[in-house]
Amino acid sequence: MVRRLSIRAARLMVLLAWASFPLISGYGAYVLGSASGSATGWILMAGILIGAAGLMRLPIGYELSAGYAVVAALPLVADGSGHIFDIPGQFAAVFVGLTVLWIVRSTRGDRQAAVFGSSVRRAAGFSTFVLISGALGRAAFPSAMSGWQEVFVFLGSAALTFGVELGLSRASWRMSSSTVGQSVPIDGSDLAEFVTLTAAGTLFGLTFDVVGWWALAVSLLPYAFAHGAFRRFRAAKVTYAQMIRALGRLPEAAGHSPVGHAERCGDLAREVGIGFGLSFRDLERLEYAALLHDIGRISLTEPAVVRRGYTDAEIGAWGAEIISEARYLKPVAEIVSRHHEPFRNPGEARDEALPLACRIVRTVSAFDDALADTGSSLEAMEHLHRGSAYEFDPAVTAALRAVIERRGSARTR
Amino acid sequence: MSKKRFYLGLVFSLAGASLLAVAAVASSVPNWAVWVVFSIAFAGLELNSVEVNDRMWMSSSAMVLFTAGVVFAIDGAALLAMVLMAATGPFVPADFRKRRVFQPVANFGQLVVSAFAAGVVLELMLSNWDSASLAAPGGFFRVAAAGSVGAFVYTVVNIGLVRVAVRFVYGNRNLVPWSSMGLLFGSQLLMGLVGGLLGGVLYLTDNAVLPLVLGVFVIGHMTFYSYSKLREAHESTLRGVVKTLEARDLYTRGHTERVAMFCQLIGERLGFSGTQLERMRWAALIHDVGKLAVPGEIMHKDGRLSDDEYRLFRQKSHSVDDLLSEVDFLNPMVEIASGSHSRLPEEDFGQRGHSHTAAPNLEQMVLAVADAFEALTSSRSFRMAFSQSAALAMLRKDEMALINDDIIDALEAAVTERGERYGAPDLTREELQDAEAVTRG
Fold first, then answer.
1. How many CA within 13 A on the CB side of residue A152?
2. How far from B142 is each of A226, A300, B68, B216, CA to CA, in Å?
3. DSSP conformation class of A106
4. Beta-carbon separation of A196 and B219 below 8 A
5. Highest mean pLDDT among A11-15, A362-366, B323-327, B368-372
6. CA–CA distance from B316 to each of B255, B298, B312 (Å)?
7. Are B242 and B338 in contact (CB under 8 A)?
8. CA dihedral A216, A217, A221, A223 (to 10 degrees)
9. Rounded-to-integer distance, Cα A83 and Cα B168, Å
């Protein structure tokens, strides 16, 4: 579980990014205006490349830009007479790139607010890379660098820049988490994509003055391989999520649970989990567990079972048995096997080991059942409040309440 | 079969060993320190190859092989360096632990022969070579060309040898070793090209570019690995559900697995591609999930269903098919599975399938035959199992004539070849009368 970013720190970070935006673009424009003829040509070309790369949809990155590949190459690109871009030149290229992106996205009809927001983010991220790689290079190796030293500088700037991207993404997510259906901020799983992008750029920069435009092939071919892998992985993830959804609805198709219960639980659990600041992977497990928490009910089609009677614990155990057939879903199976357990039994100490996800699934599922019974989310919430601290975790109930209130007036069925 | 494997292993390993000897004589000696670094990388990648597709393994090892090839070709040592590297690749610890001999020995021969062919190409194309000619205009193009031609030869020889081995050992002309040969071919070419370019770059610059390229490749490789894990998860997840569903009915326990097996047998006979076989396996896996939604009293009814009950049965099971077809990747499988139901002789339910105007495709018919054959040769609540020959005869006689006799022939041939029999034993008239007498007491 990731610690929550304090709202004050989030505001500060976002404010810094917005304040630096006019500075960065003003400086870039100034450099572009005062550059010499041949330098302008290089800057324009790099800028257009940044823009074009920025339009590419990345397979697993949520909010990262392929422009990073070009930005990473800029400090290193050299011809016979030395480095082509000095640090001001790199800023100018970033400025051109952002302008190109802006023009294309505006004419394409994207929402202005979204275009502006992402421009601010890009400006902050790109200039962090430019500044850090420049500063690191100067500070660590004042004389001309060898290839290995450049690789070291690359690693440092990539790590720090990813940190900034991560922080900004979390901060803006934290500030806007009042909206429903928020996407998840970038997290460590985007690191792979980021590293391959910047490494490809650095490779181009390092090899350009030796082999000329062959550097494009040397850097792009390995990236193409990684890109293909990312795409396949992403596609498999999507179909897997679809499959879990479909399987979650099997008990409904068999008439053993209310129609739409699993999907509503999945959505609610996800939103409650976002409220708790769960990481991407934990959110996925939580959502899958909420979708599949009733899967054990397909055993109810067995007449012998129905005749004998069954308990909630058995449903959970059967469900876990079905799910744990897939090793990938082991953590989900653990949640499902315990999702029926109450938060605390009267007169007993609470079980500290009961995972948060179990408590969320139980609360959310009870809410959906109560909603179906009473027809009003207020009544359903009251039901949860009455059971709070025994049946349900008060913290989860409060988080669920926040989600319901955000969703606006009662969403009755 | 084991004799065939023995001969094949012998031939492959002899070929590998003699080419090793030829290389040792013909080629100059590589710089061993550099060679060790390369071969550790090669063996590491080879050990961590990833199953990308049905029975298709992919690894980035070819890239390292060709980088080394180009680097060593400049000293005229490419042949020996590559052949020795290839020789270390196939000896996997897991094989030693399980005392498997055939697989590593055959792989040894196969890799050494392919690497030898590629090494000859590199030596020929990059002879009289030094850094000056590399830096000259067009020099780098020559490296790229050598890398990709070498990779092409390597891949062709490699795949060719695997095909020969599979045909010889399994004696099946139709079995295709990998489902998407194109993907394999393309990726190997790409690896060779990258490897060749990288070798040239390494020669001209310092070694700093190596960690960058390897870093990108390792990340890509790891992603492929997670991808293949996720693919396994798809199947095992569905398996869990199917197992639970079958548990409810004593009569159908194991039905799905057997139908999947019959589909596999028929498919192999008919020369299905790996992708097709995989699709058939999936379709078999889901073809009865629809029963889940069918009320227990219909499911377990003694005797045949009335028309209304049958209609309800179909309607309910179709609702589950609709659910599953919302999964993009299951779409073609659901198509096969639900299409196969309507063309069954419907022996189980005493009904004819509703007539569809569209002609059933081959895959649907194969699943239908496998399903019907399995159903006829196992007992049901209202009848005993038929014997194998009776079941086959009933399938042949099917009045709808939608089912292609080739499929039934393929099934019969495959089952006979495996020396297996399904269903009740065939009884002569006298034996039958004896049996009746016994049951009457």
1. 12
2. 26, 69, 16, 25
3. H
4. yes
5. A362-366
6. 20, 11, 6
7. no
8. -10
9. 60
The predicted structure's pLDDT at residue B344: 44
Are residues A185 and A121 in contact, defined by beta-carbon separation less than 8 angstroms?
A: no
Q: Please state the rounded mean pLDDT for residues B129-140.
A: 73
| Least confident among A111-115, B193-197, B249-253, B272-276 | B249-253
pLDDT digits (tens, 9 = 90+) for B390-424: 888 887 876 555 567 788 888 888 888 777 777 77
* B302, pLDDT greater than 80: no
**A22: its two tokens:** 């006019």
CA angle A383, A388, A390 (to 5 degrees): 120
Residue spans of alpha helices (H) in B126-174? 131-135, 139-170
Distance from the Cα of A263 to chain B's closest Cα (Å) equals: 13
Looking at residue B359, its pLDDT comes to: 59
- Asked if residue A202 lies in contact with residue A38, where contact means CB atoms within 8 angstroms, the answer is no
Residue A47 has pLDDT above 90, yes or no: yes
CA–CA distance from B13 to each of B111, B154, B167 (Å)? 10, 18, 18
DSSP result, A31-95? HHHH--HHHHHHHHHHHHHHHHHHHSPPSS-SS--THHHHHHHTTT-EETTEES--HHHHHHHHH
| Phi, psi angle pair for B387, to nearest 5° | -80, 165
**Which among B201, B295, B323 is the nearest to A218, CB-wise?**
B201
Contact, A266 vs A287, CB < 8 A? yes
Within a 13 Å sphere around the CA of A367, how many CA atoms are in the beta-carbon half?
Answer: 34
Confidence tier at A337 by pLDDT (50, 70, 90)? very high
pLDDT, tens digit (0-9, with 9 covering 90-100), for B160-192? 888 788 777 766 555 555 555 666 777 788 888
Instruction: Write down the pTM of the prediction.
Output: 0.79
Taking only residues 316 to 375 of chain A, the set having a beta carbon closer than 8 angstroms to any beta carbon of chain B reads 318, 321-329
Asked if B19 contacts B112 with a C-beta cutoff of 8 angstroms, the reply is yes
Lowest average pLDDT, out of A257-261, B241-245, B357-361, goes to: B357-361
What value does the mean pLDDT of chain B take? Answer: 78
Backbone angles phi, psi at B57, to 5 degrees: -105, 140
Q: What is the DSSP string of A341-364?
A: --S--TTS---TTS-HHHHHHHHH
| Per-position b or e across B229-249, b if 16+ CB within 10 A of its CB | ebbebbebbbbbbbbbbbebb
Q: Are B130 and B166 contacting, i.e. CB atoms less than 8 angstroms apart?
A: no
Which residues, numbered 192 to 221 in chain A, qualify as contacts with chain B under a Cβ-Cβ cut-off of 8 Å? 192, 195-196, 199-200, 202-203, 206-207, 210-212, 214, 217-218, 221
Residue B213: predicted pLDDT: 81
The answer to whether B183 touches B53, Cβ cutoff 8 Å, is yes
Q: Could B293 and A254 be called an inter-chain contact, meaning their C-beta atoms sit closer than 8 Å?
A: yes
Task: Chain B: give the shortest CA distance to residue A204, in Å.
Answer: 9
Please report which confidence band the pLDDT of residue B352 belongs to, taking 50, 70 and 90 as the band edges.
very low
The CA–CA distances, whole Å, from A412 to A115, A263, A271, A386 equal 36, 16, 18, 20
pLDDT band for A96, please (50, 70, 90 cuts).
very high
Least Cα distance to A28 among A103, A107, A130 occurs for A130
DSSP B359: P
How far A207 CA sits from the closest chain B CA (Å)?
Answer: 7
Whether A178 has a pLDDT exceeding 50, the answer reads: no
Residue B380 bridge partners (DSSP): B383
Q: Which residues pair with A78 in a beta bridge?
A: A83
Say if CB B412 and CB B270 are below 8 A apart. Answer: no
